[in-house]
Amino acid sequence: MLVEGTLRWQVTEDCPWDLLMAIALRDLAGLHGVGQPELPRGVPEVVPALHPAAGRLPLGVPARLPSAAAADRGSVEQQWVAFFAVVADRLRRPPTSLLHPPHFEALDRAIELQDLVIEHYDDAAAWSRDRHAEYAQASLERHARRAADIVEVVHHREHELRRQAGYFRLDLYVLPLAEPGAWIVGPHTVVVSASMRDDTDAFRDWFTPVVDVLV
Fold first, then answer.
1. Is residue 67 over pLDDT 50?
2. Cβ 80 vs Cβ 25: under 8 Å
3. 105 — alpha (psi -120 to 50), left (phi > 0) or beta?
4. What are phi and psi for residue 75, nearest 5 degrees?
5. Residues 6+ apart with CB under 8 A from 83
6. Do the beta carbons of residue 150 and residue 171 sit within 8 Å?
7. Which DSSP letter does residue 168 get?
C-alpha cells in the first residue's frame, strides 16, 4: 500500500485482494451491467481454466452461472453488489479476506453468490494473484513517481491558495480494468484503472481537480 500525506491530509493507494476477486467473479459469471458505477471488465480477460474432471469449460468458452445461481440471476447480482460495497469500504472491509475456501462461511446468507464463488474460486484466485503481483511490482518500480504524482499536486494547490491543506482522506484502489478512468465507489473512495495510474499525465489531469475540491 502507498500512503502519502501529513497529519492533515492523506491519500492511500492499494489493490485490495477482495476487490480483484469481485471483478474476476463478476466477469467469469458474465454479470454484465452490474453495479453503480458499472466498472469495466478486468484485463487481461478472466477465463476459466480447463478442468475436465470437474466439468469446467475450456479456455475461450464463455463462463456461465452455476445452475443454482442461474435460477435467480437477480439475486446473484444483488448479492454481488452488496459484497462489492463491503469490500470497497475500508471501514467495513475486514483485515483478512471474506472469501475463505472451501465453505466461504461469510456468504452463508448470500447462497446464490456463495454458489458462484464455489464454482469459480480457483480461476478467480489465480487471476487475482497474478494481477496483485503485477501491481506490487509496478508499485515497487515506480514508487517515487507515484508518490510525486500525489504530493506535488497537493503542494501545488497549497501554494496557489497560500495555505496548508485542511483535513481530507482519499483512498485509491488501482484495478486492472479494460478502460482508463476513475470511478467513485464510496465516500472518499475511488477506483482508478491501472492504465491511468501508470500514465502520469493522465493521472495528474484527473487528480488535480479532485485536489482543488478537497483542499
1. no
2. yes
3. alpha
4. -65, -45
5. 22, 98, 107, 110, 113
6. no
7. E
pLDDT digits (tens, 9 = 90+) for 89-116: 988 888 899 999 999 999 999 999 999 9
pLDDT, one tens digit per residue, over 99-158 is 999 999 999 999 999 999 999 999 999 999 999 999 999 999 999 999 999 999 999 999
Rounded to whole angstroms, what are the CA distances from 213 to 35, 93, 171, 186?
A: 26, 27, 15, 17
Residue 4, beta-bridge partner list: 11
> Where exactly are the structural domains of the chain?
2-13+141-214, 18-140
Q: Classify residue 6 as left (phi > 0), alpha (psi -120 to 50) or beta.
A: beta
Q: Is 2-13+141-214 a CATH 3.30.2010 domain? A: yes
DSSP 27-64: HHHT-TT-SSS-PPPBSSPP-----GGGTPPPTTSPP-
DSSP letter (8 states) at residue 107: G
Whether residue 44 has pLDDT greater than 70:
yes
Q: Are 113 and 83 in contact (CB under 8 A)?
A: yes
DSSP-based three-state secondary structure for 170: strand
Question: What is the C-alpha separation between 89 and 96, in angstroms, rounded?
Answer: 13
Residue 53: pLDDT over 90: no
* SS3 state of residue 149: helix
